Amino acid sequence: FWPKPCSWTMHSPRAANNEPSSSTDIERPALSISTSAGGPSPAPCACAPCSAPRCQSAPLPLVIVVIIALNYIPYVLWTLERRRHLALTITLVVIFHALLGLVVCAWAYTCGTDPGVPPSQWQRRMAALAKARPGSSELKVCRRSGLYKPPRSHFCSVTRRLTLNMDHYCPWVANTVGHYNRKFFLLFLLYTCLLLAYVLLSIAPQLPDLFDWALDGDGRWVGGVAYAVVLGVMLAVDVLLLLLLGPFMCLHWKMAMRNQTTIDGDKLPQYDIGLSANLEQILGRRRLHWFCPCYCDGPVGDGVHWPTKTGGAALVPLGGSGTPLRTSAAASPR
Questions:
Q1: pLDDT of residue 42
Q2: Does residue 71 contact residue 228 with C-beta atoms inside 8 Å?
Q3: 33/317 Cα distance (integer angstroms)
Q4: How far is CA 181 from CA 23, 110, 117, 269, 330, in A?
Q5: CA dist., res. 40 & res. 33, Å (int)
Q6: What is the value of pTM for the model shown?
Q7: Pseudo-torsion of CA 110, 111, 113, 115, nearest 10°?
Q8: Which of 17, 71, 255, 295 has a CA positioned 20 to 30 A from the CA of residue 28?
Q9: 4-8, 61-65, 132-136, 231-235: the lowest-pLDDT one
């Protein structure tokens, strides 16, 4: 399930126009299209390339490690050392580790998965169309990267890449959130909020005993005021994070359900094709895999072609069958 090394290459329109092409290039599909699924297939999972701007924001994810440690030591190590209600304590600790594993896995995939760039094959196809339609206003070129721009793609000023279905750059994961890793970002927010709520709700009934045990100074750990301060900081941080991340998580899931992004907002209502179809374009076609923080089959679509409410404004030839597929990108990107 872990991403493979990224093998995509970028071609500017100028370089692509120098490549030999023929009329048959225009009739080929922009990407490999799965006729059984009714649309373009997603690319294999790939690792996000390392860059200097990403390395500069790398210390921020370490804060997440500190927050995890701040919860792990009091909730797991100290509660187990108390040896009170051992069966219940072990059950709570096992659930804690299960939620923590989901959080870490989703976070790691968000950090390491390439959000996606316009494939070089699609760039060559657009160059061939530009030769066939000189001066056409339908072929959009990104001013920052010089590449042909698919619908819903944006240039990330941090990673210096044209990103498919870009949502935003998140310094907490040191990566751009886009087409191929947005699922993991949503799951990271969801499981983090669940873990924080679980810790607060399960530790609340134990607080009087915990503080008494801390002030007594029993056990191998530092007792007294130092223990109470650590426990108090953990509670304050968890409450603050839950109050901040809760609305933030709801906002991002709401946008996902409406097929919106942070950058585009509600400016592109034509891509809202229904709750189930919207979520499939992020979480994947198989609902059994929706809440699994692994790539599995990937999101529905290739991040270049997007279905719309009206069935799309253009056609992508499927090649041999001659049956067109309606999408919003098709032969001419917006």
A1: 83
A2: no
A3: 10
A4: 35, 6, 12, 22, 23
A5: 4
A6: 0.81
A7: 80
A8: 295
A9: 4-8
Question: Residue 218 — left, alpha, or beta (φ > 0 → left; ψ -120 to 50 → alpha)?
Answer: beta
H helix or E strand, kind and range, residue 243: helix 225-257
- Do residues 270 and 289 make contact, with C-beta atoms less than 8 angstroms apart? no
- Residue 328 clears pLDDT 60, i.e. is over it: no
Degrees (nearest 5) of the Cα angle 226, 231, 236?
A: 125
Alpha helix (H) ranges present in the chain? 13-17, 23-27, 52-56, 59-72, 79-82, 86-112, 120-132, 182-203, 207-216, 225-257, 275-283
What are φ and ψ of residue 194, in 5° steps? -65, -40
For 131, other C-beta atoms within 10 Å of its C-beta total 13
Q: How many residues does the chain have?
A: 334
Report how far residue 76's alpha carbon sits from residue 89's, in angstroms, rounded to the nearest whole number.
9
Name residue 69's amino acid: A
Tell me which long-range contacts 248-252 makes (C-beta under 8 A, separation of at least 24): 248/189, 249/186, 249/189, 249/190, 249/192, 249/193, 252/185, 252/186, 252/189
Report yes or no: 235 and 255 within 8 Å, Cβ to Cβ: no
∠ at Cα 318 (314, 322), nearest 5°? Answer: 95
Average pLDDT over residues 286-299: 94
- For 234-251, letters b (16+ CB in 10 Å) and e give bbeebeeebeebeeebee
Nearest to 194, CA basis, from 257, 242, 253, 250: 242
**The pLDDT of residue 188 is above 90:** yes
Token output for 264 = 């585009």
* Tens of pLDDT, residues 215-235: 776 555 566 677 778 888 999
Rg (C-alpha) for the chain, rounded Å, is 24
What's the CA gap between 75 and 64, in Å, rounded?
16
pLDDT tens digits for range 102-146: 999 999 999 999 999 999 999 999 999 888 887 776 788 999 999
Residue that the structure tokens 């699924």 belong to: 37
